[in-house]
């Protein structure tokens, strides 16, 4: 494992504050499915698909992570950082902004 992989894992662990079981449960909700840009005409948003990949990453042992997993972890870190910086004013509890972040494994209410 490279130093870059170690840094990626550390950054990912800082960005993703939901457990695999919390994220799985969230991804089954209507709210989760209602937000995000749909891709490929299959009806699933990019964020929802990402959430499923994050669950798989969280369920793996560190030694079993692939290059694709590390690439996705870097993508997650970037998304969470960018989207968090766009926090709207006021109560964000029931907003698309929060729901989108949760699809990417980050609950800003935690």
Our measurement of the CA-to-CA distance between the termini, rounded to an integer number of angstroms, reads 31 Å
Overall mean pLDDT: 94
Strand content: under 5%
Output the number of helix runs: 6
The secondary structure category is mainly alpha
Count of strand segments: 0
Radius of gyration: 14 Å
Largest sheet: none
Shape: globular
How many structural domains can be distinguished in the coordinates?
A: 1
Helicity range: 55-70%
Uncertain parts: none
- The SSE order reads HHHHHH
Quick description:
The chain has 110 residues and is mostly helical.
Give me the secondary-structure topology.
Layout: H1 3-15, H2 20-27, H3 30-34, H4 46-59, H5 67-84, H6 96-103
Overview of the structural elements:
25% of the residues are buried. The protein has helices at residues 3-15, 20-27, 30-34, 46-59, 67-84, 96-103. It contains six helices and no strands. It starts with a helix and ends in a 7-residue tail after the last helix. The protein is an all-alpha fold and 110 residues long. It has one domain. α2 (20-27) runs antiparallel to α4 (46-59), α4 (46-59) crosses α5 and α4 (46-59) crosses α6 (96-103).
Which properties best describe this structure?
110 residues, mainly alpha, 6 helices
